[in-house]
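Prompt: Have a read of the protein record below and flag anything odd:
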Amino acid sequence: MKISIRKLVFAALCLALALVLPFLTGQIPQIGGMLSPMHIPILLCGFLCGWPLAMAAGFIAPLLRYVMFGMPPMPTALVMAFELAAYGAFSGILYHLLPKKTANIYVSLILAMLAGRVVYGLASFVILGITGTQFTLSAFLAGAFISAWPGIILHILLIPLIVIALKKAKLMPND
């Protein structure tokens, strides 16, 4: 598999944004939890760089952020590593497989978000179970959907607009 320098640069930019964007909401943790700012660049990375780089950036981002800044705390950072890796992988795979129509940007994004939330639930169940913490279906629904709905809406509105703008500017390294 050949990876271009351009894709590596975009992946590094997405990783850097995943480290920095949470500072915009970090003063009010509830807002950060609702808007999920780390998810935006990792989902974008799938569209821009393909699934391998996006999966790697997604897995690394929360762990590196924990090492550098102590946030998100463990075991949340580990759960998020699997979740964000899934977001990057699925957005990249789906965007690659589906015809390059505007509607499929939304389809790829929404399916990637759903798959990432399933991975979040499974990772939470396993990792929290190992630590002796019970992870219930209601905790999954609350964390993945109920409290996250503002971020879900933000991602559905923002990410396709960015992808469409990059396509029009002929800056998509994956097209």
Q: What stands out?
A: The chain has a mean pLDDT of 88. DSSP finds nine helices and no strands in the chain. The CA atoms of residues 26 and 32 lie 6 Å apart.
